[in-house]
Prior knowledge:
about 325 residues
Amino acid sequence: MSLRSRLTAYVIALHVIFAALAVALLLRHPIWLFAIEAVFIGSLLVGLKLTRDFVHGFALPQEVARLLRDRELTARLREVGQPELDTLIGVYNRMVDDLRGERTRLEEQHQFLAKLVQASPAGIIILDFDGRVSSANPAAERLLDLTVAELTARRLEELASPLAQGLAALPASETRVVGLSGSRRMRCHHGTFLDRGFRRSFLLIDELTEELRQFEKAAYEKLIRVMSHEVNNTVGASNSLLQSSLAYAGELGEASRADFEGAIAVVIERTEQLNRFMRSFADVVRLPAPITQPCDVLPMLEAASTLLSADPANAAIVWRWDVRDPLHALA
């Protein structure tokens, strides 16, 4: 039997007993009997109303418990006109509004983070409490060369991937660069976060191959510019001295003068070629298209013969010339 039924039965039984006593005592006085019976009837009605209101107050917590158990945060309670219950209803409505707003905010943040993880160019792997892969974004699939089905519910040590083995050996809260085949380099970070009071791990993978290539390219550009500057300064001073040495050709005999002037001219030409080469080499990272032009092969071969004949190791080499006359330039 419910509380409301018991209270109603108690109020009715109490009034019936008092009514029976009044009839037995005031049977000889009908006027007083009717007056007392009218009072009993009014008291009974008031008691029933108070019982109903009292039981209704007990029904409110039950309704609140049902709504919270069903996670129904969109329903609000209306005031019933009783100050005590209206205060409780106001507190409940404010609490429901706050919970609904917090749940909406968390859902929006969760959706934003989920989309951010999926679109991130860095690989992200989230592990469960047992150290098994619970989720991975597309970038992690690409870097590990494995699909989500092959990653999920497996430990990193069990994956057939050199990068996965490097990630498995990475301690918590540490960042390390892992080298792969060729020149590929991966920066890996092992982080942790709290989930329901327990610590879980996540791994970030960022490919550094292109970044390192750009860094090396910038370093080589700077080195080549410095080399070009130094070679240019050295060649300029050397050619100036060689040009001054040609002034002493008149003091040599006829037999030696031609060889002396030819050797100095070859050296000057070679240093000028080296200077031009270094100036062009400064743009090595921006290699232009080759520039073709006609070339007279005979002077080039004669200069190479003169240059190599000065080396004692090549003294036994005999040059045999078989040149057609005239020799056309090659394009």
